[in-house]
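I have been asked to look over a protein record a colleague put together. Thanks in advance; the entry in question is below.
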Amino acid sequence: MAAPPASSSKGLGDLPMRVVYRAIAIAAGVVVLGAGATVVLLNRDDSATAAPRNSAAAAPSVISDSSASGAGVAPAAGAVATPGLSPLSSPLSNAEASTTPGADSTDGADGGDSADGGDSADGGDGVDTADADVALAAALKDPRVPALPKKTHRLRSLPGRSASTHGLIKDRRSGVALPRFATSWALAKPAPFASRQLLPKVKGASYRGMLVSCPVPIPEQKSLRDTAFLAARWTLNHHPSGSTITWTASQPIKAGEQKGWLLGYTVHYTLKGKKRVSAAALALVDVPEKKPAVVFVTIPDSQKKRWHDINKVMSSVKVL
């Protein structure tokens, strides 16, 4: 019987063992690489899904100026300190406290750029009757401030000669104009008022003369006289601690067509164990569509040569 023809292909048993082992190693490597790729892809998907949940916690907390103001957080005010003056914060009760005049205006002489701080929180109209009543009741009980005289007393001529002036300062935020002194007085950063002029520092003295204007910083009363009374009490915050008042003048005034009230007073205090005084005056003027404006000047006895400047200021206040 004839033998079957030989096959042209070889079986697995006909291959050398080294070839078999090499094929098995290659197959195993492919399986391992495939499994690893699967794990990487799964982990990538998981991290991509989890990222939005954790990103807020991982990101640093940053508060910008705009976000801080929106949350009621404001940077500290950079008010310019005047030696010898009391802090601006008022000792009045919460019911009496009001918005402090801002520092967003620039002084300008007559014929030049005018002060214009724009709208502000303390520039609105209207009287909160409850706050006004509480403020007036507290002021009438304040032993530092006696009740105003019932009769009119005009501001007397104070000693000295007034300094020369150079036009007017136009305080558009308050709605008034007042003299800009060309000598002795110097323009100063207005904050926390709307305009401010200062006398030079006196050697050995911690307190110097000041002339300012601003919208009335206390609750407006039903009468200009009572509002001026509260404003004068407020000015004690800008005199040495423990100061008291005695009145030297109380009279109605006119600033153009607008009504106002003028108060003159002496401020008594003690510095370094010595009793001292300052001459002071305040004009409260009714301004259309704004709060009444305050023009306030105070000059210590260490600078009494400038006391007559008070008469110059009080006779020159105008409504813009």
